[in-house]
Sequence to fold (183 residues):
Amino acid sequence: MVFIDENELYQKQTYRNRTTILTANGIQNLSVPVIRPQGKNSLVHEIEISYAENWVKDHIKAIESAYRNSPYYQYYSDQLIGILKQGHAKLSELNWDLIQFFIQKIGLAVELQKSVESPNFSEHDYRKTLHPKVETGFKSYHYIQTFEERHGFHPNPSILDLLFNEGPNSISILQETKLPSLL
Fold:
């Protein structure tokens, strides 16, 4: 069982509202603009998505440009784009739908549960394991990436990079990946 803590304080500049994709021009960060209704004291489940700018259109265009020629884009893109176009009010709702999508498509045997009270994680608290500003030692097992001939292999882009490039083989890549000791 994996618990998603929606009652923790929202942390800026984390993967809660961003991801990294590989494009013809190299790495591109995609961020979902958010509104923190309680300012720095906002909890994860309170974070709203801002639609002041058309970020959905921009994200879809960037994903299509980066991955439309990847081997499995045509198999997964419609459902992924459908999730992005749903107009979720809360970031936690969008993230939940995206996590469920990737778990299902990759074939992971993981049961998720939203935690409405801050659980006692003790030694198994992985919330700070992956952070865009901190080197964690996590490096994905090598797989063929769309623009690898131009930019070399990038070991830690978004899971959508793995899914669009490896499809059903994504689970094998994850199984071959060596996890750092902090996991």
In short: Residues 2-176 form one domain. The helical segments are 55-67, 73-84, 91-106, 148-151, 159-166, 170-176. The beta strands are 2-5, 18-23, 26-31, 34-35, 48-49, 112-115.
